[in-house]
């Protein structure tokens, strides 16, 4: 065992010295991921602001103008223009949605009847269309509840909206009140930052491991290593240990950036976060070494990782919920080690999840990581 340790330490020192001489790589591993995390944290925001709203006011009454004023009070809508007919509004392709207020709008309200308002939404971006539907429903609900008459108005949209009434709740009606847990301030950046930091660490681990392993082939030093008394396992461990340490530094740097820049909380056990990051780094290194065993150059290895990493990222649930995926891909995501890291990171930072809730993810992540690293070691030794 002492001979094993001596050879391992000697080979590790060789890899460390190579990394020290390659300072550009170390800078690339630290600074760009931090910048990417900040950019994505601000850019990936599902909130929609400044929806361009057109209005076709066929009523031209005090009631219709009051209704339009209630829409402008909402910061989510910007009145782009007033039109004389729906055909004119349809010609403006820059509108996100427009309203058609009928001629009998005021007369229906004064009679205590329900007034119809037609809504047309641009549904090219389905997500924005659904968000606009929710915003408009809230505005109409506030308008009805503040009106002096009941019922007030409802909207009968065409395309993406459903016909729905929003009168003030009658006596004895059920009133639903929502309470938000884990993120009561509804800070959307927390969701994306926790996912992006996991992606950055995992992808970097696979890219760096594959590049360093293939470099031995390109420079021809792999044959010299084979002539030494060192065994294949010792060489592989020595080659991946510095990468492992650097990847752990990367994810903790990302965590500190999330806390400082976005106010990301860390409510759970930090040791659980560290353990999950370690197994995930091991899995990423295993994938990188596995790619290196079938590559003849660093360029080929990078191209292969571009085919491997995007599916792993998309199936992890880091940027979109797994439950929204088709059933086949939901089952396929159980093979994705990044899925378990994302779950643990969010459980530790946002939810203060107990050990009993996270240990199945940690055990599965450890099993997948050991399996990937073992396969890569077998391929490396066979080669």
List the helices and strands and how they pair.
Layout: H1 2-21, H2 23-43, E1 51-57, H3 62-72, E2 77-83, H4 86-91, E3 97-101, H5 105-110, E4 115-121, H6 126-146, E5 153-155, H7 188-219, H8 221-226, H9 232-262, H10 270-293, H11 298-314, H12 327-332, H13 337-351, H14 355-382
Parallel strand pairs: 1-2, 1-3, 4-5
Antiparallel strand pairs: 3-4
Throw out a few tags for this protein.
alpha/beta, 14 helices, five-stranded mixed β-sheet, 383 residues, single chain, 2 domains, elongated, abc type-2 transporter like fold
Structural class: alpha/beta
Shape call: elongated
The averaged pLDDT comes out at 78
| N- and C-termini, Cα separation | 25 Å
* Fraction of residues in helix: 55-70%
Q: Please summarize the sheet with the most strands.
A: 5 strands, mixed
What is the count of helical runs? 14
> Which stretches are poorly predicted, pLDDT < 50 over at least 5 residues?
148-170
The largest sheet has its strands arranged as 2-1-3-4-5
Number of domain modules: 2
Strand percentage: 5-15%
Counted beta strands = 5
Helix and strand string, N-terminal first? Answer: HHEHEHEHEHEHHHHHHHH
Rg value: 29 Å
């Amino acid at each position: 065992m002492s001979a094993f340790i001596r050879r391992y330490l000697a080979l590790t020192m060789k890899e460390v010295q190579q990394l020290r001489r390659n300072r550009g790589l170390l800078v690339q591993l630290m600074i760009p991921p931090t910048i990417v995390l900040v950019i994505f944290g601000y850019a990936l925001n599902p909130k929609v602001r400044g929806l361009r709203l057109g209005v076709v006011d066929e009523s031209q009454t005090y009631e219709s103008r009051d209704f339009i004023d209630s829409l402008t009070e909402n910061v989510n809508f910007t009145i782009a223009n007033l039109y004389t007919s729906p055909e004119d509004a349809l010609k403006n392709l820059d509108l996100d949605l427009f309203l058609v207020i009928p001629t009998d709008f005021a007369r229906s309200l004064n009679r205590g009847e329900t007034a119809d308002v037609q809504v047309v939404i641009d549904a090219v971006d389905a997500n924005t269309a659904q968000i606009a539907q929710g915003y408009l429903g809230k505005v109409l609900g506030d308008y009805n509840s503040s009106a002096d008459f009941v019922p007030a108005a409802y909207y009968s949209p065409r395309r993406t909206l459903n016909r729905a009434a929003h009168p003030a709740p009658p006596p004895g009606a059920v009133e639903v009140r929502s309470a938000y847990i884990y993120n009561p301030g509804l800070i959307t950046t927390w969701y994306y930052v926790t996912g992006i930091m996991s992606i950055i660490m995992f992808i970097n681990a696979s890219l760096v491991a594959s590049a360093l392993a293939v470099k031995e082939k390109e420079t021809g030093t792999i044959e010299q290593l084979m002539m030494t008394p060192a065994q294949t396992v010792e060489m592989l461990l020595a080659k991946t240990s510095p990468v492992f340490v650097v990847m752990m530094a990367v994810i903790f740097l990302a965590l500190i950036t999330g806390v400082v820049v976005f106010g990301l909380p860390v409510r759970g056990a930090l040791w659980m976060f560290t353990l999950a990051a370690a197994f995930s780094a091991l899995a990423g290194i295993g994938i990188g070494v596995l790619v290196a065993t079938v590559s003849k150059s660093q360029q080929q290895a990078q191209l292969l990782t571009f085919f491997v990493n995007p599916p792993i990222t998309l199936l992890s649930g880091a940027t979109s919920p797994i439950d929204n995926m088709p059933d086949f891909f939901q089952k396929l995501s159980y093979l994705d080690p990044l899925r378990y890291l994302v779950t643990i990171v969010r459980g530790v930072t946002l939810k203060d999840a107990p050990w009993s809730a996270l240990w199945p993810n940690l055990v599965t992540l450890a099993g997948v990581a050991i399996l990937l690293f073992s396969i890569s070691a077998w391929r490396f030794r066979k080669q």
